Amino acid sequence: MALSHLALLWLAAFAGGFTQGLAGFGSTLVALPLLALVLDLKVAVPVCTTLAVMLNLVMIVRLLGHVRRGLLLLLIASSLPAMPFGAYILRVVSGDWLKLVLAAAILVFVIMQGRPGAQASTAGRGRGWGVLAGLVAGGMGGAIGINGPPIVAWMSRLGLPRDALRATLVSYFFLAGCGVVASQAGAGLVTGAVLGRTGLALPALAAGIFAGMKLCGRVSEAAFRRIILAILAFNAVTLLAQGLAGLLGR
User: Fold this and answer.
1) Which of 30, 69, 131, 147 is disulfide-compatible with 137, CB 3.0–4.6 A?
2) Angle at 167 between CA 196 and CA 148, to 5 degrees
3) Got the DSSP string for 47-108?
4) Nearest Cα to 180, choosing from 136, 133, 148?
5) pTM value > 0.85
6) CA 242/CA 77 separation, integer angstroms
7) Nearest Cα residue to 27 out of 12, 42, 5
8) How far apart (Å, rounded) are the C-alpha atoms in residues 68 and 191?
9) pLDDT over 80 (residue 121)
10) CB atoms within 10 A of CB 205
11) SS3 of 44, please?
12) Which residues fall within 8 angstroms of residue 67, CB to CB, at 6 or more apart?
């Protein structure tokens, strides 16, 4: 592997680990575009999902006592039924259009949440909204492999302490990620090349997790909320760019 490619692999792993360590989500949308610059997508995607499972496991061990199990069960139970529906939707609707719709919804949420006094409002905090977030996440996960933004958007409205928010998020993503990696392994995508690249990325991933969790402990709750919104906005812009590139490239 060329040194320049190795440097990008390490950068992707560090950036993904840092983002997840800081906010509890966002590693895949941060790391995958970088990995895709130096790896074939059939290698980049399994490497990214395998690294995500590993970093979520590390964070679960660190934050296990903060997991809100009731919320976790609610999200898992509401996500599962929608996954097959999402796969069906992908057969009749372009994944690029789905990315654009999801990006627009996230941007609207970020703009609404960025208004003065928005966090004090109790709108959108009920469990019914949590079920809806789980259904949308499950459907989007089944359709385009991206399930995080709806979950994060709802949970960020609950006013949870940062450790409870991150612990519950990474627990959800760990369980979902195990299913994704298992399906990739069953399809023969977890090859020697994937495992080799994953192994090479582990030191940078560990450094990123450590740095992200360190920084998280030093920011105020208000600053943490702003970081969540900023990463959501970044995710939305990434999805928007992917969707437009896919549509224009046809």
Assistant:
1) 147
2) 70
3) HHHHHHHHHHHHHHHHHGGG--HHHHHHHHHHHTTHHHHHHHHHHHS-HHHHHHHHHHHHHH
4) 148
5) no
6) 29
7) 12
8) 35
9) no
10) 27
11) helix
12) 60, 164, 167, 168, 171
Token digits of residue 197: 């690249």
**Count of beta carbons in the 10 Å neighbourhood of residue 94:** 14
Ramachandran bin of 160, using left for φ above 0, alpha for ψ from -120 to 50, beta for the remaining angles: beta
Residue type, 146: I
Please state, for a pLDDT cut of 90, what percent of the chain lies above it.
38
Residue 227, both tokens: 């970081």
CB 225 within 8 A of CB 153: no
Tell me the one-letter amino acid at 69.
R
- Return the number of other C-beta atoms located less than 10 Å from residue 84's C-beta: 12
The answer to whether 118 and 62 have CB atoms below 8 angstroms apart is: no
Q: Please, what is the angle between helix 82-92 and helix 95-113, to 10°?
A: 120
**Which two structure tokens, joined as six digits, stand for 100?**
């654009």
User: From CA 206, how far away is CA 201, in angstroms rounded?
Assistant: 9
Cβ count near 162 (within 10 Å): 22
Measured CA to CA, the distance from residue 143 to residue 243 in angstroms comes to 13
Task: Give the residue among 49, 102, 86 at the shortest CA–CA distance from 241.
Answer: 102
Residues across the chain: 250
